[in-house]
Design brief:
The chain has 504 residues and is α/β, with parallel strands linked by helices. It has two domains: 186 residues, Rossmann fold; 243 residues, P-loop containing nucleotide triphosphate hydrolases (Rossmann fold, 3-Layer(aba) Sandwich). It contains 18 helices and 20 strands. It has a six-stranded mixed beta sheet, with helices on both faces. It has a six-stranded mixed beta sheet with strand order 16-17-18-13-19-20, sandwiched between helices. Strands 2-1-4-5 form a four-stranded antiparallel beta sheet, with helices on one face. Helix 4 packs across helix 5.
Amino acid sequence: MDNSQAAPVLELKGVSKSFGAVVALRNADLALRAGSIHAVVGENGAGKSTLVKIMAGLYQRDTGTFEMDGAPVHFRTTAEAKDAGVAVIYQEPTLFPDLSVTENVFMGRQPVSRFGRIDKAAMRTEVVGLMERLGVRIDPGRPCEGLSIADQQIIEIAKAISLDARVLIMDEPTAALSGVEVDRLFAVARSLRDEGRALMFISHRFDEVFSLCDTVTVMRDGTYISTDAIADTSVAEIVRRMVGRDVNELFPKQAAEIGRPLLEVTGLTEPGVFSDISFTVRSGEIVALAGLVGAGRSEVARAVFGVDPYTTGSVVVDGKPLPRRKPSAAMKQGIALVPEDRRKQGLVIDATVASNITDAIRPTLTTFGLVTARRENAEAQIWARKLEVKTAALDAVAGTLSGGNQQKVVLAKWLAANPKVLIIDEPTRGIDVGTKSEVHRMMSELAGMGLAILMISSELPEVLGMADRVLVMHEGRITADIPRAEATPESVMFAATHDKEDVA
């Protein structure tokens, strides 16, 4: 059903918002229509979050018009936005962990019986009905503590539906979800669209935008750029509008001289996790470890670094054997590991940018056991400049940075330690397309300086665009070692879904 010409449920025209001298949003236009899923894409800093917060009542616009069903509105609070039927589903929901699913859905508006008591039976019955309507199975009586991010998002959606929300805004909802969870969320989104609700979907993942959405709006530097039907545009065109350059510039791979082996892994085995893993990464070489989720790629990387165990096999760094289960020894011998979950494993979120950058080299900065702020800042400044970390100050808290800049801080921390081998797990997950290009450029430059890089990535274009060789894993085993010239989407995916014998 084509709803492209239907009257907008929610529409903004020429909306601007400034914070002091900083213009966050400039002349933004957006029209959300019933029975349609509308994507909004743009780099970090493009104005997407500001736009969402105006729609949700957190911010008030400075200029422009804001209408619902053709009538002017001005939300002064989030409550007013909710009352008007606007709901936001955030990447990380904020539920009350000690309360049940049902209690969270009805928080602040519990129905009461004729005796004045909370009608728990009525609440449960409605939540059961909501879950059935969404096609998911979540026990209404269980506490929310321990639920996956995906289940928490479903609960937020159920809450929105119970409030009869007509506009649902999904802000990076898939960033922390597995493939199966994404499929379930998309099925729910499509069912809501088919009910006649208007959905807005914010994502950095173009495959999701093109598989789920009907329309896409592009923003850049706080300014509205364009709106097109998904059927009338392409990934290459969207990227060009977002960043002002062509898609082939996203993978600035430079030629590097391939030298001696710096990382040699032989026969690495941990029963039930991975088996007989053997590979070599040389100086100047970027080797991608590809495969489907659950293939064992991250487990291999953590075992090499010493975080996870392995029962048999060996790891050699620049000709010297590396003891197992000793990350400190791995660091001393020149291995750096940038983990997939940078917020939980790579950064101290509440610490300063300077403290995070110097974390791996702090012992070298001490005098009589103490580190002065001046010395820490001096060292941090070097790497912040090299990696172009965008921060107001080095004493800013790392948790306030964008995802791309957090990734740069983690990279800076390890590069300051002057490693020989860089293991980087999902280098561009959750960051915008422009920053992806910067990370790829840095990786290429590091290889050119002689580092050996092992890159784990679930993004096939990244694998094909950056790797000199592609190692493909399937169910804990390496099924193929493909040179760059022979690596194609078909060859990588075949190896990722078949046993070694089938690939051979």
